[in-house]
């Protein structure tokens, strides 16, 4: 307890309000207690799950908090680019809830935490040769446990579930899991889910209702990118209301050192996919060396057709010769 108190004083933590009456997680100016120690400037973010504005005003002595004052959403779906801070946000909320329950101060400006019976996560996949399970199987087990064990007092964190299988299957599973929590109504747990499946919203995978809110990690797009390999987005690490517009995967790849030629190819393919174009047309384009090789092969084939093919008996109309001519003509036609 002395260590927790000393840490709270050293790092500017505050005493939370832990309440058994309201099933809420309301955090203002929340921070990750470890990451903020290794960064020069940490961007604090709020979290409002469950409850209502009246609950906050009563517990915070009549002072309004930012966000939606009458929000009663128990599920938050977070989108945004890679490396924008979605996973850190999920972890910092869970750590704040955990610290409040062990009697510690918390890394936030202020916080009201409803009594929580479990913190269930699908964040980290720990693979091992002795387990005999694929990464996706491990993810499925974690999600299955979360769905089965969660109560209205639980906090469920789901980070990028579904990425280990086909995109259509992954998005369908993710949407079905969120819908299963929504179907519980007032008995739904508090859920924070981060995903790159934008089709969950665009494709109406989720059942609309007041118990779910959309959030995104904010970025600023650089429209004056000179060439591939240069960052095209500026990460602000700030949680905002609404849906993200893109994952900016190629920009993240550029920051992490992927070759420019690969990024250029990826941009072209991504653009074709976004327009439902035929990728076979793209793949059929040949380089200079490939074109020269094909032209040389065509010249040999045409020279072969001009030859007077004869069988061992000297007949110019042998079955083997005509068959070879037919094969070569078919290849030239294609």
Structure description:
The longest helix is centred in the C-terminal third of the chain and has 19 residues. The strands form 2 sheets. The chain has a 6-stranded mixed β-sheet with strand order 6-7-8-4-9-10, with helices on both faces. It has a 4-stranded mixed β-sheet with strand order 1-5-2-3, with helices on one face. It is elongated, with a radius of gyration of 29 Å. It is 39% helix and 17% strand. 30% of the residues are buried. Helix 10 runs antiparallel to helix 11. It starts with a helix and ends with a helix. About 7% of the residues have low confidence. The protein has 11 helices and 10 strands. The chain has 334 residues and is α/β, with parallel strands linked by helices. The chain folds into 2 domains: 246 residues, Rossmann fold (3-Layer(aba) Sandwich), CATH 3.40.50; 48 residues.
Order of helices and strands: HEEEHEHEEHEHEHEEHHHHH
Q: Shape, please?
A: elongated
Helix content: 25-40%
What is the CATH first-level class name of the largest domain? Alpha Beta
The number of domains is 2
Largest sheet geometry: 6 strands, mixed
Q: Structural class of the secondary elements?
A: alpha/beta
The name CATH uses for the topology of the largest domain is: Rossmann fold
């Amino acid at each position: 307890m002395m260590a927790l108190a000393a840490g709270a004083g050293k790092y500017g933590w505050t005493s939370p309000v832990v309440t058994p009456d309201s099933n809420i997680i309301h955090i203002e100016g929340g921070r990750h207690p470890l990451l903020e120690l290794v960064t020069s400037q940490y961007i604090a973010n709020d979290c409002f799950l469950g409850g209502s504005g009246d609950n906050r005003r009563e517990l915070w002595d009549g002072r309004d908090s930012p966000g939606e004052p009458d929000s009663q959403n128990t599920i938050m779906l977070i989108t945004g680019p890679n490396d924008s801070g979605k996973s850190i946000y999920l972890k910092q909320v869970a750590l704040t809830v955990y610290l409040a329950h062990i009697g510690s101060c918390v890394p936030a400006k202020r916080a009201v935490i409803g009594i929580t019976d479990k913190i269930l996560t699908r964040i980290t996949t720990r693979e091992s040769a002795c387990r005999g399970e694929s990464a996706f199987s491990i993810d499925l087990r974690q999600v299955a446990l979360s769905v089965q064990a969660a109560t209205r007092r639980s906090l469920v964190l789901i980070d990028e579930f579904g990425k280990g299988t086909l995109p259509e299957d992954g998005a369908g599973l993710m949407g079905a899991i969120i819908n299963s929590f929504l179907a519980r109504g007032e008995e739904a747990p508090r859920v924070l889910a981060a995903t790159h499946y934008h089709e969950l919203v665009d494709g109406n995978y989720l059942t609309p209702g007041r118990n779910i809110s959309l959030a995104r990690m904010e970025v600023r797009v650089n429209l004056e990118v000179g060439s591939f390999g240069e960052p095209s987005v500026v990460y602000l690490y700030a949680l905002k209301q609404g849906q993200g517009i893109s994952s900016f995967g190629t920009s993240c790849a550029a920051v992490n050192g992927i070759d420019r030629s690969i990024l250029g190819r990826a941009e072209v393919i991504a653009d074709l996919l976004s327009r439902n174009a035929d990728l076979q047309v793209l793949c059929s384009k040949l380089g200079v060396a490939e074109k020269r090789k094909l032209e040389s092969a065509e010249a040999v084939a045409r020279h072969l057709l001009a030859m007077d093919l004869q069988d061992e008996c000297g007949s110019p109309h042998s079955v083997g010769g005509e068959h070879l001519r037919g094969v070569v003509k078919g290849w030239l036609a294609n």
